[in-house]
Write a structure and sequence with these properties.
The chain is built from five helices and eight strands. It is of the alpha+beta class and 279 residues long. An eight-stranded antiparallel beta sheet has the order 1-6-8-7-3-4-2-5, covered by helices on one side. β7 and β8 form a beta hairpin. The N and C termini lie far apart (121 Å).
Length: 279
């Protein structure tokens, strides 16, 4: 009988080879960890650069120029809704306006100084411009629809001189930046020049936010629901720079909210204020 002999031999385990394999594996893991850390750092830098560019694009570094002169608006025929409460709550009204009249310019008028009036008592209106000046082409259908939706109708007079500023309206972030940057400068300008400028209107027009405060006929900008100019508004030279805390959030609407400067009744004119025009 022939006896088969198994000549297959099991390779011996080399301790040095196993140790080298473990070292290579550890080296590979360390390299992968380094690449992962570098990738995370790169992503964070990319995110920060993107956020910075987005803020810059939204107007973070735009210059703020406050001036007095002939405003870019004439007599306004408007539809509006009146509200009382913190200005930061005006967003839903702006949303309602833009949905009801998407082709019209929207605006807000802010009557009270948050530094002097409790948040729950702040008065403001939000609405849409139906027509301007001699333009009588306002759609009766749109006006009737807004009236059915419980909007009120009013007219704001043409004023020869206003305190004015503009800011780009690129997106919702632009509104928040504008509120934080424009109003302090606006208030400083009014105080330094001893002006009687109130209330403040924000008009959203073709990519631009116009900040406007009339220097005459102020009482004609107060809708009947406000009850007229408050005693707080009669104190001269209010500091608007304190009002940024009551800004609109601007997250889900096309407009923002902020307060105007104080002053006397509508009898004051630009000429009586004895301030050089910066138009």
């Amino acid at each position: 009988m022939i006896k088969l002999i198994n000549t297959t031999t099991r390779p011996s385990q080399d301790p040095d080879s196993a140790q080298n394999f473990e070292q290579r594996l550890l080296h590979y893991s360390a390299k992968m960890s380094e690449y992962l850390i570098l990738a995370i750092i790169g992503m964070l830098i990319l995110i920060l650069v993107t956020v910075f560019v987005y803020f810059m694009y939204s107007g973070l570094f735009n210059g703020i120029e406050i001036r007095t002169g002939k405003p870019p608006i004439r007599e306004l025929h408007v539809a509006y809704k009146y509200a009382v409460g913190p200005y930061k709550n005006c967003g839903p009204l702006f949303t309602e306006v833009t949905k009801a009249a998407p082709d019209l310019r929207c605006f807000g008028v802010y009557y009270d100084d948050p530094a002097k009036v409790a948040p729950e008592k702040l008065r403001y209106i939000v609405g849409a411009v139906l027509s301007e000046g001699d333009d009588k082409e306002a759609s009766k259908e749109i006006e009737e629809k807004l009236v059915q939706d419980e909007f009120k109708i009013a007219k704001f007079p043409e004023v020869d001189h206003m305190v004015m500023a503009t800011f780009p309206h690129i997106n919702s972030l632009s509104i928040m930046i504008a509120v934080q940057r424009v109003y302090p400068a606006f208030g400083d300008y009014v105080v330094q020049n001893g002006l009687c400028a109130h209330p403040v209107m924000e008009l959203y027009d073709d990519g631009i936010i116009h900040f406007l405060a009339p220097l005459a006929k102020q009482n004609e900008f107060y809708v009947p629901e406000t009850g007229g100019i408050s005693p707080e508004e009669e104190a001269p030279n209010s500091d608007m720079s304190s009002k940024t805390g009551e800004s609109s959030s601007g997250e889900d609407q096309e407009g923002g909210g902020q307060e105007g400067t104080t002053g006397s009744d509508s009898g004051s004119s630009f000429e009586e204020l004895n301030v050089n025009e910066d138009a």
